[in-house]
Design a protein that fits this description.
The chain crosses the membrane at residues 7-27. This protein starts with a helix and ends in a 19-residue tail after the last helix. Helix 4 (103-125) packs antiparallel against helix 5 (136-167). It has one domain (2-171). The protein has helices at 2-61, 65-74, 89-94, 103-125, 136-167. Helices cover 70% and strands 0% of the residues. By secondary structure, the chain is mainly α.
């Protein structure tokens, strides 16, 4: 009888040890994957917030069309300076790994980064030699097109951040407030 119990116990240990090891590995792997997804969502949200604030700042600090038109008439060789400081590293590095987000969030993300790419192309156009050959009113229109596109990017970014906040409420995602005050800078 002792032999049977001893054999049974050894068999049980032989079966349970790898099973428990596998279960521990499986749950740890799932926890690590979940933590990686949360980190990716946070990083992407922060990048979108930065880019959206940059679009807000550009529109807020840009001179009105009348002022820009007068400056370009008075100084025909002047080229408007627009800083294109987009950050797309998180998105570009992880687009293939975003399969876990909903289709809605993914579509908004692709739209947002697509509009940012339009801004980049339009800003690059200001530096072409042909830009100087345009009459002042056409140059103002080119800058106004950039302003309109940055407004689209701003709206798209805010919509995307709202989707992230709705889809991931447990992460407590809020916009960065550069003023250091409590609460998000909206």
């Amino acid at each position: 009888m002792t032999f049977l119990t001893d054999t049974w116990l050894r068999f049980l240990i032989a079966v349970l040890t790898p099973t428990i090891g596998f279960l521990v590995w499986f749950f740890k792997r799932n926890l690590d994957a979940r933590a990686a997804r949360r980190s990716m969502v946070r990083a992407l949200y922060a990048e979108i917030d930065f880019n959206t604030r940059d679009m807000e700042r550009f529109r807020r600090n840009s001179p009105p069309p009348e002022v820009l038109s007068q400056v370009l008439r008075d100084h025909p060789d002047r080229i408007p300076h627009v800083t294109d400081a987009r950050h797309t590293e998180v998105y570009r590095a992880n687009i293939a790994h975003l399969h876990f987000v909903s289709d809605n969030v993914l579509q908004h993300a692709v739209d947002f980064y697509g509009v940012l790419e339009k801004v980049r192309v339009q800003v690059d156009g200001l530096n072409y030699g042909s830009f100087k050959t345009l009459p002042p009113d056409s140059r103002v229109q080119a800058v106004e097109l950039i302003r309109a596109t940055t407004q689209s990017a701003e709206v798209s970014g805010k919509r995307l951040m709202a989707e992230f906040e709705r889809e991931y409420p447990k992460l407590g995602l809020t916009r960065f407030n550069p003023n250091g005050k409590e609460g998000p800078a909206r």
